[in-house]
Metal ion efflux outer membrane factor protein family (Novosphingobium pentaromativorans US6-1), 165 residues
Amino acid sequence: MRLAETGNFSDPTGRVGVRHFGQGNDMAIMVGASIPLGSRTANRGNVARANAEAQAAEAEIAVTRVQVRREIDRLIAERATLATEIVRIEREVLPSAERAVVLVGDGFARGGTAFTFLEANQAQQAVVDARSRRVELLRRFHLNGARLDRLTGRHASLLASAENR
């Protein structure tokens, strides 16, 4: 903006030179100067364009801030949902699935037709599935945490101190 406004004023110029006259050895020193008398309106288009570009840049920054804030809010909400599901798996699903494995294993060990090998296998598979789901949810929880840290600049001070070493 200020660069465009500086175009409103032309720079004064000066000239110094030597002139040789064609007949004889006569010489003259010539001195000249010019101070432009331009008006401020001569550069109005460049100033207007610079103003428009500055406003466009400010609008783009504002849009980016809104998008970042929206992404931060989304990540916080998703992390809360993931944490709730992880806690539910740890407190409800895994204990009941592990209890089912013990009960089915005891019934299968006693023999008879109460439980088959397939049912014992399915009970164990339910525990494996619950643990796998928990690991996947933990992975997503921590990846979202890393994204959140990147967006909020949580560890930016650590980067700056590491660069100064």
Q: What stands out?
A: Helices lie at 2-6, 44-110, 117-152, 156-163. The chain has a mean pLDDT of 87.
